[in-house]
């Protein structure tokens, strides 16, 4: 569990169709003194926060493409400014899709190979060579719940993801481009992941790996 003093502030951005915002707040509350929910149409002083989180869900019903409409919401201008100035930023599931569509992370998330909603626990393997600024466990087990969760980048660009330290986690035994489960940016302060850490941290959850994925203030 991260050594956080509950002295920090976290912001959770709420979009039309978000459905993991309350779970995410409950996940963050033990580790941050204040957790604020920000409506996607509201501008906010991102620099006053220690962490910004884009929660899971189906923003705008995945219309056009998962995350593409939410990426153009007014609050995202402040999220982007915060992230580009080194602020710790996490996107979970739909939040990962939004980070990719906003240009904060490379690639795009497309329909899974199953072609339908996929809900199960998965084992993840840390590549141990990412730029991520905070330490995360070598292996974790987390739930996924998505239809558009398969990472895609053109073949002529995929090698740079590993060469430049973008890949944080792959699905165990699947280290191809489509097996990427979590990415960071070149600077290491933005984390996008398809699995849900907010559903794997409390005593009543099947696994408690989630809290170990939060940024530790001493690492930043």
Describe the protein:
With 220 residues, the protein is α/β, with parallel strands linked by helices. It has a single domain, classed as Rossmann fold. It has 4 helices and 11 strands, in the order βαββαβαββββαβββ. It has a 9-stranded mixed sheet with strand order 2-1-3-4-11-10-9-6-7, with helices on both faces. Strands 5-8 form a two-stranded antiparallel ribbon. β3 (51-54), α2 and β4 (89-92) form a beta-alpha-beta unit. The longest helix is centred in the middle third of the chain and has 11 residues, at 74-84. It starts with 8 loop residues before the first strand and ends in a 27-residue tail after the last strand. The model has no long low-confidence stretch (mean pLDDT 89).
Mean pLDDT: 89
CATH class: Alpha Beta
CATH topology: Rossmann fold
Uncertain spans, ≥5 residues at pLDDT below 50?
Answer: none
How many separate helices? Answer: 4
Identify the CATH homologous superfamily.
Class I glutamine amidotransferase (GATase) domain
What series of H and E elements makes up the topology?
A: EHEEHEHEEEEHEEE
Topology, number of strands: 11
Distance between the termini: 16 Å
Q: Bin the strand percentage.
A: 25-35%
